[in-house]
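Worked example 4.2. Below are the chains of a multi-component assembly; read each line carefully before continuing.
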Amino acid sequence: MLSIKKPTLLINIDICKQNIHNMAAGAREQKVIFRPHFKTHQSATIGEWFREEGVSAITVSSVSMAQYFAKHGWDNITIAFPVNLLEIEEINLLASEINLQVLIESEQVAGFLSEKLRSACGFFIKIDTGYHRTGVKPSNIQLIDSILHTADPLKLNFKGFLTHSGNTYQAADRNEIFQIQQITAENLLRLKKHYLDRYPDLIVSVGDTPTCSQLPVVTGIDEIRPGNFVFFDVMQFTLGSCRLADIAVALICPVVAVHPNRNEAVIYGGAVHLSKENILLTPDPKPVYGLAVGWDGENWDTATLLGKVSGLSQEHGILTLTQAGCNLKPGMLVAVLPVHSCLTSNLMRKYTGLDGSVIETIHTWPA
Amino acid sequence: MLSIKKPTLLINIDICKQNIHNMAAGAREQKVIFRPHFKTHQSATIGEWFREEGVSAITVSSVSMAQYFAKHGWDNITIAFPVNLLEIEEINLLASEINLQVLIESEQVAGFLSEKLRSACGFFIKIDTGYHRTGVKPSNIQLIDSILHTADPLKLNFKGFLTHSGNTYQAADRNEIFQIQQITAENLLRLKKHYLDRYPDLIVSVGDTPTCSQLPVVTGIDEIRPGNFVFFDVMQFTLGSCRLADIAVALICPVVAVHPNRNEAVIYGGAVHLSKENILLTPDPKPVYGLAVGWDGENWDTATLLGKVSGLSQEHGILTLTQAGCNLKPGMLVAVLPVHSCLTSNLMRKYTGLDGSVIETIHTWPA
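Applying the procedure described above to all two chains together yields the following structure tokens:
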């Protein structure tokens, strides 16, 4: 029985390891490289659970994360974020120590790195296959050629093309995720075909949890880089990527007030714990910041929905209660399944196992 | 010249001290108690700047914050959050050491504290004057009486009525803020009149930055508890509480990519730095997560709007550029004024002064 007094992020290690196993086994069966994104958990301990599944290469989204995981024995890391030129010293140090890959999407950055890198480094050209956040349009062969021309081959080893189809997060259903996957694959495979003669070792890399958890990998895609699946969350549930029972983390929160006249309870658990990420759960017109389920002191119970988190301020969460939540009273605890586990994890900074063990992260690891 | 390589939360100490001075001087002139909310900055160092203005009593929103500030010499603290019964041990310890006030809004909590408190503690009855987050309806005299009847006077000293008009954050203009202020004051003053005979020392306490920064205090109100004004932010600017030049914190972010074809730049600075708090800046139909202004290495310049943060993922921010922002290039830095400084400060965990000095907070203070 855990003694919890204030908002605490719990992890169900069995569920988490099962999620890792499922994705790793799927990649093995389909013979694609599994390079999981570690930005969701940001924990060296959880990283070890991937190693047990044979994972040896990872993805991160900052130089700081690359430094942290390199320190914890990971020697093959892709930083899936546009190169931050201001961190060239840190990149140089990493490139001298591990197999590092960076993303390039402009001639300027290719030129800068060609001049400033002291150790060879791999690079992918980031392709924008529809998300429109970063990357080169797949039709822009001229820019791709000029990046390849600018990149000094003694410093920069071209690894291939990489995309992140974050637009799947806006998909209405699995069919739309499938459509996005097809467009993504067509674009990458066309580029692969175009450049394979010149770069016979090039690979193409995709990676978003909705696609990777719901659909088989398209033939010809070489690498997948999903991250969120390690925990899943309410957003992935609504996208069809997981069951509620597959969500591996929950924020345990004290109930501090009840307002039966408006079917609400107030929990100690706010924007500084869950984050303000929210989703619409149709037909409800109001955004939801989490789902509150039962907590018996040992396990949370996704079969008992007690309420939706319908509002958040800094430390307060407002639960709009279901029938099952009407008996909540101050002093009781509920388990909140987060809308976006990456942001909740980042805010909470560490995990507590159901056995009370503490799992450190980049934020808390003793120096 | 500061050397900044990755997202860094800067504080302009002069602006911050001026904001503190303005609010403290206003309270002095109006002869009301100024009990600032410290949840925005969460820093003992910044707390000292309030002491220089004669502040000796503060507001916090969690037992943890009360512990932190008590350790740093504050001996009169109101925890403006419904009592978390699970932290009764911590509350007992605090009540034995300092003048502590808590909020009560139910008989259950009044009964629990009457039974479990070992040291006397002050309490306010939380009144809901229209925000509908927590509190007793001002018309519910029956509940107020039963709380007062249940509270053991040897353990619980009744201090008065307290409200937070968070509904001012939804106000369309200053007139609506004025209307909310009037309703709030009417309700509290009616209660004050009703109970003053029985409790001649009772006070009524209000506190939200939009009201306190824009309007004189209504006669009869005894205490104000604003918090956000210490930094202000884009939300307060849009509400009319401050000028852009009064915002005391800015997140300095590297530019990592530019996409001139869609007038966008990508910055290293995302939801884990700014938070996903956003606002609508009419007539723009899309939410805004921050305003990017110029940064010359020594100061930010609110007169030069470079872009709006129109999208955020974990580490990425998307800037929709103004004409002035069209020359941004990877490797340059911009200053982002946050939409909600409380959440950005909480995420960034510490502040860097323009002189490079580091200001610790509850999250980073050496144990």
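Take a moment to check your reading of the output against the notes. Residues 60 and 79 of chain A are 5 Å apart (CA to CA). Residues 174-195 of chain A form the longest helix (22 residues).
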